[in-house]
Amino acid sequence: MTPANEAGLRLVLPAASLTWRELQRFVRQRSRIIGALGTPIIFWVLIGAGLGRSFTTESITGDVSYLEYFFPGTLALILLFTAIFSTISVIEDRHEGFLQSVLVAPVGRMSIALGKILGSTALAVIQGFLFLVFAPLVGIHISLWQLGELAVVITLLSFALSGLGFLVAWRLDSVQGFHSVMNLLLIPMWLLSGALFPASGASPWLRFLLVINPLTYGVAALRHTLYPAAMIAPGHLPGLGVSLFVTTAFGLAMFVAGSLLVARSESK
Rounded CA gap, 187 and 184, in Å? Predict the structure, then answer.
């Protein structure tokens, strides 16, 4: 076996073990499905029903209801909630002593970050695809080709949000503090991502916040993959290529930052 292959195995095997542990924990704690999937669905139905009559947008052409417009935003909210709930396990593992045992093991620090982030990513992808079952109810019909595109976009966005959740969780020692920080950080990110309202109707300073918000590009990528290309008004949404690039770069930045944080905490 070449040194490159050995290095790859040292990275992948511990990460896969940590990812599998996160999946097993999820199976044992099924109530997490209600929190991460149920709450966004309630938002989708209530907000969609309440704003449906007053909704107009130039970013999506055709006869689009607010429930249909809000569908990609709700999907992003599900991925975001999953990132919040699943990365709490970092704090729980620290309290239980598991994290300390992992840190003293001969395991690469990048593997720890990768395993925890991939575990959260897998859970988010599963719950995101569960929500896609509701798409035909609002007139969104997904082909097999679109399903493949959605798998890529959902995975990239889930990885980025899970990386951000891991980055915050690693620095905190309190579940209550984690919830406070994540709600203060992620909920405004979601509100200013084009999930609730199109950027075309916002004031200039609000449009600026939408442009610099990385989650905006994840939501835009979801819209591009869920709607036919003819429905996307030119210039009203970031292009699919730009959206995928920003989402991928954001995810990689969160992973690298998380890996560096794990290595730095060990050296202290």
Answer: 6
Range of the domain at 235: 3-267
Q: pLDDT tens, 99-137?
A: 677 666 666 678 888 888 988 899 889 889 988 988 888
Beta bridge partners of 232: 60
Distance (Å, rounded) from C-alpha 201 to C-alpha 4? 52
Distance CA 139, CA 207 (A): 28
Residue 147 has pLDDT above 70, yes or no: yes
The answer on pLDDT for 56 being more than 70 is no
**Burial profile 108-118: b = 16 or more Cβ within 10 angstroms, e = fewer:** bbbbbbbbbbb
Q: Say yes or no to pLDDT of 242 above 90.
A: yes
Q: Show the CA angle centred on residue 216, arms to residues 178 and 219, nearest 5°.
A: 95
Total number of domains in the chain: 1
DSSP 147-195: HHHHHHHHHHHHHHHHHHHHHHHHH---HHHHHHHHHHHHHHHHHTTTS
Stated length of the chain: 268
Distance CA 56, CA 62 (A): 11
Kindly give the interhelix angle for 109-131 and 240-267, rounded to the nearest 10 degrees: 140
How far apart are the C-alpha atoms of 97 and 8, rounded to whole Å? 27
**Mean predicted lDDT score pLDDT of the chain:** 79
Q: What is the DSSP string of 215-231?
A: HHHHHHHHHHHHS-GGG
- Mean pLDDT of the 52-67 span: 61
